[in-house]
Design a protein that fits this description.
Layout lengths: L2 H12 L8 H18 L10 H13 L10 E5 L7 H7 L4 E6 L2 H13 L5 E5 L2 H4 L9 E7 L4 H8 L3 E11 L10 H6 L2 E10 L6 E9 L13 H4 L4
Parallel strand pairs: 1-2, 1-4, 2-3, 4-5
Antiparallel strand pairs: 5-7, 6-7
Helix pairs in contact: 1-2, 1-3, 2-5, 3-4
Amino acid sequence: MNFEEFKTMLNTELNYLSINLSDIKLEQFYTYMNLLIEWNKKINLTAIVEEKDIIIKHFLDSLTISKYINSNQKIMDIGTGAGFPGIPLKIFQENINMNLVDSLNKRITFLNEVVNKIELKNIVAIHSRAEDLAKIEEHREKYDIVVSRAVAKLNTLLEYMMPFIKVGGTCICMKGSNIEELEESKKAIEILGGKLEKVDEIVLPNTDIKRNNIIIKKIKNTPKEYPRKAGIPTKNPII
């Protein structure tokens, strides 16, 4: 796919979200897509490898939460993998501070390559587990927004995310079509200092793919004992 074809396709899909991007930003997305395809031949970054699917299932999907992102906010993307949703959000809203967190160093190497090639500023890729990073003072309850896409069950995911969010900030959990786990996560939301604000139900354009973006406000400090040691939130989630 050449750039003009890519530009036409991405712009068509972005109309669904009422988003207009400059040619410079479109070029950044184009370079990102090609790097993703190239690197995925060497390391396992994504099962989504067709250009059209990358545009819809990665880029557009990531930008479905763009309406919650404002200039100059400090944002963390936990379990970012190949950079979703963090890098698309950073391209879209360049005046944010973005930290990408992943536990696999080979992914961090890829993310740094993308950041350098498309010349993004005020974005850092961090090699760490969320459970460990949240115990460090410079990160704990310092973020306006924490996002995560398809990382873990909701009650486990919240234990990773909520300790990073300042009181008054927002937790955005990007989930699939089935959110039955929301019911069993009510206790975790309360204990970790959150309050459910809304669930955005979305169908990606020209597909039957359903998404639910769960929006949680941070209304009080997360108790110091959370997150628990690495592995415990997965084995023994808050229920």
